[in-house]
Amino acid sequence: MNATFLAGALATGATFASLCAGVALAQGPGSTPVYLSEIIIDPSGTDNGVEYVEIRSAANTSLSGYYLVMIEGDGAAAGTVDKVDAFDASWSTGSNGLLLWRDAASVHNPAPAAGTSVVVRDFNPDIENGSNTYLLGYGTPPTINSDLDADNDGTLNAGALTGFTVVDAVTLLESDTGANVGYADDLGFPVVGPITTPASYTPDWLERVFNADGTPCNWVGGDLTGTAAAGFFVRTDRVGWGYAAHGIDNTQFPTLAWTPGNANYAPDADADGAMNACDGCTDTDGDGLGNGGFPANTCGLDACPGDPANADSDGDGALDCNDQCPNDPLKTQVGECGCGVPDTDTDGDTRPDCNDLCPNDPLKTAPGACGCGVADVDTDEDGTADCNDLCPNDPLKTAPGACGCGVAESDTDSDGTADCNDLCPNDPLKTAPGACGCGVAETDTDSDGTPDCNDLCPNDPL
Question: 3-state SS of the chain?
Answer without folding.
Answer: CCHHHHHHHHHCCCCHHHHCCCCCCCCCCCCCCCEEEEEECCCCCCCCCCCEEEEECCCCCECCCEEEEEEECEHHHCCEEEEEEECCCCCECCCCCEEEEECCCCCCCCCCCCCCEEEECCCCCCCCCCCEEEEEEEECCCCCCCECCCCCCCCCCCCCCCCEEEEEEEEECCCCCCCECCCHHHHCCCEECCECCCCCECCCEEEEEECCCCCEEEEEEECEEEECCCEEEECCCCCCECCHHHCCCHHHCCCCCCCCCCCCCCCCCCCCCCCHHHCCCCCCCCCCCECCCCCCCCCCECCCCCCCCCCCCCCCCCCHHHCCCCCCCCCCCCCCCCCCCCCCCCCCCCCCHHHCCCCCCCCCCCCCCCCCCCCCCCCCCCCCCHHHCCCCCCCCCCCCCCCCCCCCCCCCCCCCCCHHHCCCCCCCCCCCCCCCCCCCCCCCCCCCCCCHHHCCCCCCCC
